[in-house]
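Summary of Year 1 activities. Much of the first year was spent building the evaluation harness for sequence design. The harness presents a backbone, in tokenized form, and records the residue chosen at every position. We chose the following record to illustrate the format because it has been used consistently in internal testing since the harness was completed.
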């Protein structure tokens, strides 16, 4: 596989989800930041595209999933302009990287992600972030359905419990997607000549 048709997706690594004390903190998400940073650094060194996929909800909840409307009334999260919507420390985008805003689980739903990937000739996506059973999983399955080669970086992703994490990895692998560690993934990428 040619590393020039790969891109990295970092999903929902925002203060409200990935920093201790966040409005909707996911256990274990904060611990993945150094691992995600390692693969992020490699993609930057290779000059490959990086997509920071973030959630943002209007403060009135008018654009949140119906299953979260009540929760958002009592506990606002990832509201644009608030500290909780910022990307977690150490993973902030740099110039030339993409920031894609979504209001649904999948990074492909109602966003420009697919358009940009196709324009750039990207066919292989490495997926990291939080949390696996919802946003990562939806993105992985939508990407597969759209014809992308999807790879989950298992140690650069998180779920509320290890049991949930392993069950989802099993399902994703059973669907024919690659599930590997960051070390395994990076060993397959060579710097351009």
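For this record, the design step produced the sequence shown next.
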């Amino acid at each position: 596989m040619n590393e020039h048709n790969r891109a990295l997706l970092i999903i929902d690594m925002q203060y409200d989800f990935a920093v201790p004390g966040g409005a909707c903190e996911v256990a274990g998400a904060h611990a993945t930041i150094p691992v995600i940073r390692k693969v992020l650094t490699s993609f930057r060194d290779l000059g490959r595209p990086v997509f920071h996929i973030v959630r943002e909800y209007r403060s009135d909840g008018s654009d949140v999933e119906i299953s979260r409307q009540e929760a958002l009334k009592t506990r606002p999260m990832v509201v644009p302009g608030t500290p909780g919507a910022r990307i977690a420390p150490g993973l902030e985008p740099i110039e030339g990287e993409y920031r894609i805003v979504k209001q649904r689980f999948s990074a492909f739903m109602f966003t420009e992600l697919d358009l940009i990937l196709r324009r750039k000739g990207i066919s292989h996506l490495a997926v990291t972030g939080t949390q696996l059973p919802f946003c990562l999983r939806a993105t992985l399955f939508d990407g597969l359905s759209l014809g992308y080669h999807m790879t989950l970086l298992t140690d650069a992703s998180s779920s509320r419990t290890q049991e949930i994490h392993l069950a989802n990895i099993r399902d994703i692998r059973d669907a024919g997607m690659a599930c590997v560690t960051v070390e395994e993934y990076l060993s397959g990428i060579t710097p351009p000549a």
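The mean pLDDT is 93. Quantitative recovery figures across the full test set are reported in Table 2.
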